[in-house]
What we know:
The strands form seven sheets. The chain has a 22-stranded antiparallel β-barrel. The protein has a five-stranded mixed beta sheet with strand order 3-8-9-6-7. It is built from six helices and 40 strands. The model is unreliable at 1-34 (pLDDT under 50). The protein has one domain: TonB-dependent receptor, beta-barrel domain (Maltoporin, Chain A, Beta Barrel), CATH 2.40.170. The chain has 701 residues and is mostly beta strands. One of its GO terms (biological process) is iron ion transport. It holds the Pfam family Plug.
Amino acid sequence: MMKAFSKGLLLATAIGSFPAMAAAQDATAEASSDANGFGDIVVTSQRTEQRLQDVPISVTAITADEIQTRQVNAPTDVARLVPNLKLDGVTGGSAGLKAYIRGGGGTDGGYVMSEAEVALYINDVYNARMQGALMDFAEIERIEVLRGPQGVLYGRNASAGAINIITKQPSDEFTGNVQAGYGTWNERRLKGYISVPLSEDGKWAASFNGIVRARDGGRQYNATLDKKVGKEDFKGGQFDLAYKGDVVKARLNLFYLDLNSDGQWSVNTTTNDEGKIVPLSGSYRTVLSPVESDTRVKQKGGSLHLSADYPGGTLTSITGYSEMDDFWIQDFSGGYPAEDPQALFVRSSDSQQWQFSQEINAAGSLANGFVDYVVGFYYFHENGDQIVDTTTFGFPSRTNFHAKTDAWAGYGQLTFNVTDQLALIAGGRYTLEDKSLNADIGGDPAVSRDHYKKFTPKLGINFKPSNDVLLYGSYSVGFKSGGYNGLASTADQLAEAFKPQTTDAFEAGIKADLGSTVRVALSGFVNKIQNRQESINLGDGGFLIENYDITIKGLEAEIAWKPIYGLQIWGNGALNDGKYRNVPTDASLAGNTPPFLPDYQATIGFDYNFDLGSGKVKFGADANFRDAYYSTADNAAIGAVTSTQIVNAYVGYDVGPWQFQVAGKNLFNQINWQTGFGFDVVNPRFMTDPRTVLATARYSF
Length: 701
């Protein structure tokens, strides 16, 4: 622990020294600052447009240029760009996503009752199911990652944070691009975007973007079936129709995605003579299961944004709808024994889900700007059905789920601008949730009806000694309602809802532009969580959800520095500490360390470009360092994840309307795993991606 802390402290000190280094630059660097400085990034993380450096919360904004240059092709790629964010695939099927912010997340994302502590939004619409979240992106304008409880403005299941993906709106000019790519495992991709004005005044416009992507097997090799596995086929599209009037604005967004892959492949493990856990097959890239894995996901939906300006403010309506079909099957045992592998723990899931949400909010100013306000109402409805078939050591069982959720919330936040430098914030959200479950395990019924309510306040103070420096402090409360455990072994366990959890969060931070070439954000936080919902391994393929109190505290830093024209050095890092509180000595997690909370995490990288001929050369790299951590609350050795050091890089050439780039991830081919669990001889781990390379050519018009 002390060794890890020392490494993290050294790294944080190095990051923190950048401003001093920048201040010592000579006049040449200062002279180029105007041309080489940071522009303003406008975000909507507080439901109104603000400069990123004026937002008094821990939020990272990833721009369209960064998404393109740094090869952010899927949500999992975002994690290295944001401190204290971890994104993994789920263990059931290959299409789901597990998101963790500051140690808060969720582990059973493959079930229709599953709800993470990190809320995923697409164009401000909450996406309850993360099974389809590993899709390739459409044309993205920016990604905003909010760290810490967002209990007022985002509310539902945002007790650890929120991720908001904002896609590009139609333009009032004819524009577009087409991109082709080729990469590892014979990956082929074709992606395009086109935007067309529909009226002479430019107020009406439409856009369409889509992607077709496929890759062959090769991520792993199945020695039992004698075939390469990891094949994927994906296609998706998005249509936008926008009206940009002087007073009224509207945007209709429709999307569709279809993923077909040969699924997730578990790697069974064993303990060797040295007491070390090793793959039964001899390699994490070799699997033994005799059962074919499969994942198929189809999702479609849309959203309608309407807004109207009135004197001093804007009234906004956000309507969202989506439906999804999700199927997966896999052998969690990975095949045992090595000589004649058998499938000992096979599970399949077939689910359908649909959701509807409606939000109305008003934002503006009163009393000549003395008060800025955001007030709103939110409604959410979800229906989900799922059939899960499991065969454990030859014994089959079936679980049927039907789950329904209705949630209502009213919220408001006021910012009192006491002076030009001092502002006070007060806000709150009142949430009501009704949940119901009609299920059975092996024919035994599990029926429950539950109601939850909670008021989550926020208080804050902002001080701006200058236009380029913001100091802020806040107290807020996050809430995640109780629910049902899809991994239960018995009907009684399933029908007994686990308790809701609340988070009392304290945070202080500083954001500053030091000159025009250094941008820094530092924050410290303490999260006191009551009734944290933790998964407990029962040792038979099932899990319980138990509630524990926990305190998590940490420091986070983000830095960007442009010392000379064309060069940017950037980095982020976090130091964390977490402990369970008030745990009885006979409790399941007595003496354990909270999961998904490494002592330190950091990324440091650079981007550089220079003119060459009629075009521009660009290249860059980043290295991500993460300390070892436990991926399961029971702290079992099978779920312990070793420290990682992942290096990524790219090189490209832009000439006229063309952009050429070759990018590599995990260049040193570090083979690791994201999690693992075990019972009897079933001890699977789940491998993260090895080295991949992708070459792309993009033409813009």
